[in-house]
Amino acid sequence: MHDPHVPVPRGSAAPGGPRPQRRPLRILAALVLAAAVVPVIGQAAAQASVARRPVPGTAGPRKAGSTRVGDVAATRQLPFAVTLPLRNRPALDALISRVSNPRSPAYGRYLTPSQFMARFAPTRSQVATVTGFLRSEGITVASVSSNRTVVDATGTAANVERAFGSSMGRYHDRSTGRNYVANDRVLSVPSSVRADVLGIVGLDSHYLRHHPPLHAAEAPRAGAGPAGGWTPAQLKTGYDVSPLASAGFTGSGQHVGLFELDGFQQSNITTYDNQYGLGSPSPTVVRVDGGSGSLGGGQVEVELDIEVIQAIAPAAAITVWEGPNSDQGVIDTYNAMAVSNTTPANSTSWGLCEPNSSQATINSEDQVFAQMAAQGQSLFAASGDSAAYDCGVNGQLAVDNPADDPNVTGTGGTRLTLASNNTYSSETTWDTNATEGGGGGVSTKFGKPSWQNAPGVPSNCSTHRCVPDISSNADPATGYSIFSQGRWTVVGGTSAAAPMWAGFTAVYNQDATANGTARLGFANPVLYQLASTTQSFPPYHDITTGHTSTTTNWPATAGYDLATGLGSFDANNFARDRISGGGTTNDFSIGASPSTVSVAAGSAGTTTISTATTSGSAQTVSLSAGGLPSGASASFNPASVTSGGSSTLTLSTSSSTPSGSYAVTVTGTGTSATHSTPVTLTVTGGGGGGSVQVVGNPGFETGTTPWSLTAGVRNSSTSEPAHSGSWDAWLDGYGRTHTDSATQSVTIPSGHTTATLQFYLHIDTSETTTTTAYDRLTVKIGSTTLATYSNLNKASGYAVHSFNVSGFIGQTVTLSFSGTEDVSLQTSFVLDDITLTAN
User: Fold this and answer.
1) How confident is the model over 406-424, as a mean pLDDT?
2) Could you tell me how far CA 351 lies from the centroid of its own chain?
3) pTM for the full model?
């Protein structure tokens, strides 16, 4: 049997498959060429006599479904990388543990790249040994990384085969239709070099990294984006980022790094930024190994990553590290992020299932991630979108790389539901079907990290690394509003969850820096410690329903689980738990009980206004009331309270106060926040004098009450600004079959002679027709249709519309605005300042 550690001459038979045989030289030719042949024979004999050792992990994953179709041409240039092992790895792992443990005195004392080099990088002598060996084999050394861990090189196939003791073959993968090249057996090097070689990567081009985000189906989608999808405002409200943003923590002064294997178009990013009024700086691009080439199928991934970061941390600077999609490109790009050390928060949405990842590549990546952890660089990686089967093969449980690496934070996926006011409602696992959902499971490559302890960690994680660590929204049905490749769309996938966490980390790091606390750094020890101890504020949303697939694999449970890890973040709570002075320190809520007061004209009624401290310390809250009818007054006893206390509101009327229902707004003004609550005052038997406005919350400024609105209608986006104030009602605008409505029951009091409905309406549309009404808004009072508007009525600003509704005086009727869209091209109907006044 052929010794796999000895080079196979080109044209000879190789174990694992026949190779074409060259014809024997004719004797005459041999005699004529003898002078040239003798040195070659001598060289081969000398090479065979050199003791060689295999480089573990370089055989590559087995090529199931692949067929070898021939040799690689001897003169073909093959680029690859040789990685060198770090020194003192046990000491490095111990240092990472100290600087990442919040209970350690060394927490936050991260290394600089130069400090890392001095203590752990390979020596110059090791680099000289490796580069000298390569050059002796006729291989060109292209570069040596500044941390001396990666040597990039290029050689002909003939030289590569001779250097590493393996023939190079051309293969065809029947399952994917891809052609690729690969070494036919494990690579080897001379024994004198072996100790200085960790891995050889890039010669096997079988598997490419993937994770393109998933587009939502054309079914109705959650969210208020132009085509559906959660908007930045909805995401920040839902995940409790808004209090931090209100305190000025928007990522200013922070830097986020994105690992990418494709490019993007700035025009798409600018459209997204302008739509949501984010004012974000343009990303900086660093192309490694020449970048990814022309735009490809991963463009939407890159644009998603950038836009999700901007949604959560709009003021953060973003660096896109763009490399080619190869093992060598992956190592070089991650290493560039580490040696630069300019991006404390980082995200990667590109991955490969663990069984298809070569051990040499995994080992080489792990060194880079260890350097990032020692330098305090967070790295969040998508855990995959194939549920428990990351390789996409039913029955083969697998996790994703690099989310599986212990120095990386694996980020899983959920399905997010928001309340009508966009606050957090609930989350379940994302489990569309057996092979689509948030990735999770048990690694077969990495042992259990010491920090992976928390309530709920299952027994199958007692010896191996488990993922994900944490999660956030990833289901395309509750996906993200993004602008990519020239259009608005909705996407999901753990590709979105990872940059969500990186964006939050930028906000957190700004808060921490402002309050003299270390930035998050390598996140996992902090994440699990928060989950393992009692916190003042719940830092996570614990997801307890669903699985990673429609089977029974990895059910969601209380605490940690393999479906969603520790759960998703509550940004403000997380910051308050970790940072002294972080988060929103003082806030309160306000409410009325009962919320309706009914009195006869000339008398008074009461209700109780209650407040509660929702965060931080209690504060003084001054109370006032607005929206009172003529002849009515309000008094509070006491006039101000400490949040957590209550006051009695007395609403007094006179005999001349007109009958009817009135939307009274009670406002609490505190030292750090202001909140309002509605109270409906109903007056009976009153006089007919004076003017009465009966629509409650006419500008949508105090929430949804007493309106009944479909989800996402109440709007504060600058893309459809209010006529006055900050809020309006944005109906439709999805560009697909959709219906939105805004309704309110009103009572027009008796004793008046006229009643007038007035509202401000802005219509914009993507329809280009000037003759056909495709999308319509219908305005009704009771069962009577007052008007119908359509895409034909588009205008650049608001138009005021008035209707005489005197025929409804003395009645309680429903005021209704209903907007409908057809299958394509959006039309937005935006309403504000709706009044119905009786005189």
Assistant:
1) 94
2) 15
3) 0.68
